[in-house]
């Protein structure tokens, strides 16, 4: 073999080795983190996977979030819930029956269940959200009392029914009600993202979707994931405590997330559907649960109720952390959960 042929052969060997190295690197599992901004919400994920699978995972997650946005986002005029709200407002009959998707039926079932336990949590609260300026217009100001009284007349979860007929799901509305799933919609989306991870057979991962967190498996050190509970008032401390989580979701509702100030008073976005005003029974409420949708609904409920939440036996959770209106922290743990 001539020296020239040996030279070309050496080049081929080196190139083949480089290709093999790149292939192994891209297909080697490691902990990878990425951030996605989609539907006005930031999604942070960390997962033990390959670069190729992460690329495909992000595409699937994006598709799933877009799919859910077309179901439950009331500000998306083409979404299923926006169309339901429009039909409801335009209806002039005593009863309006609308066929809904399985996802929408599930969302109504969850919302009605929590509304029945505590009417302050009412899925037909949307008129108040818009009135206070936390809706589409974001024109935040304290409404007049007569405006609140008028909005309260348009809120009544008891005028909603879910019906199954020939395998199809319907909702029946007996008033011109409008709906908003902001109190637990993000949690439901997280449950759908968990399904995406399962489809890719990824076992160790962390999801943070706009503050709704789910931790599965272990972190890069082989330990449970560590989730911080934010201090609702003292940014210097940063957090109230740290939770070690494996296969748990942690969700917090707080008065610091969305609010405006008028005449020296802060008015936040979590409105009590019974009285028409923001509630001040707590500064924040954090729930640890196995289901993100339940945790989201429970954190809103706990925030609305304050420490009275602990006395209600209808609510099931692993842990609850409530900072009351005085800034005192209360913790409850259910060892049998």
Automatic annotation (TrEMBL):
* Cofactor: how and how many bound: Magnesium. Can also use manganese.
Positions contributing to Mg(2+) binding: 183, 296, 300
One molecular function GO term is: metal ion binding
In short, the EC number is: 2.7.1.180
UniProt enzyme class: transferase
Keywords assigned: FAD, Flavoprotein, Lipoprotein, Magnesium, Membrane, Metal-binding, Transferase, Transmembrane, Transmembrane helix
Q: Which reaction does it catalyse?
A: L-threonyl-[protein] + FAD = FMN-L-threonyl-[protein] + AMP + H(+)
The answer to whether UniProt assigns keyword Protein biosynthesis to this entry is no
List, alphabetically, the InterPro entries matched: ApbE, ApbE-like_sf
Q: What does the record give as cofactor?
A: Mg(2+); Mn(2+)
Bilayer-spanning residue ranges: 7-25
Similarity comment text for this entry: Belongs to the ApbE family.
User: What's the protein here called?
Assistant: FAD:protein FMN transferase
């Amino acid at each position: 073999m001539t020296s020239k042929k040996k030279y070309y052969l050496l080049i081929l060997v080196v190139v083949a080795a480089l290709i093999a190295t790149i292939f192994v690197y891209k297909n080697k599992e490691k902990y990878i983190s990425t951030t996605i901004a989609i539907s006005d919400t930031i999604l942070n994920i960390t997962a033990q996977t390959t670069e190729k699978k992460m690329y495909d995972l992000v595409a699937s997650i994006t598709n799933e979030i877009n799919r859910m946005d077309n179901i439950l986002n009331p500000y998306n005029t083409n979404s299923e819930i926006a169309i339901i709200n429009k039909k409801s407002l335009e209806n002039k009959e005593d009863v309006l029956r609308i066929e809904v998707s399985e996802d929408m039926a599930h969302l109504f079932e969850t919302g009605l269940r929590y509304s029945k336990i505590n009417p302050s949590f009412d899925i037909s609260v949307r008129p108040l959200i818009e009135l206070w300026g936390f809706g589409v217009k974001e024109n935040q100001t304290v409404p007049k009392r007569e405006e609140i009284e008028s909005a309260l007349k348009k809120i009544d979860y008891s005028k909603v029914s879910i019906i199954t007929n020939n395998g199809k799901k319907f909702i029946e509305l007996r008033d011109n009600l409008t709906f908003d799933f902001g109190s637990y919609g993000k949690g439901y989306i997280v449950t759908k993202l968990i399904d995406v991870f399962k489809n890719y057979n990824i076992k160790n991962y962390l999801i943070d979707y706009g503050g709704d967190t789910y931790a599965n498996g272990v972190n890069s050190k082989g330990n449970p994931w560590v989730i911080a509970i934010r201090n609702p008032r003292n940014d210097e401390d940063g957090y109230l405590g740290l939770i070690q989580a494996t296969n748990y979701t942690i969700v917090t509702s707080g008065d610091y997330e969305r609010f405006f100030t008028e005449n020296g008073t802060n008015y936040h976005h979590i409105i009590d559907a019974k009285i028409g005003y923001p509630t001040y029974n707590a500064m924040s409420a954090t729930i640890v649960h196995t289901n993100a949708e339940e945790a989201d609904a429970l954190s809103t409920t706990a925030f609305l109720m304050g420490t009275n939440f602990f006395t209600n036996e209808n609510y099931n959770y692993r842990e609850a952390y409530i900072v009351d209106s005085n800034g005192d922290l209360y913790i409850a743990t259910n060892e049998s959960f």
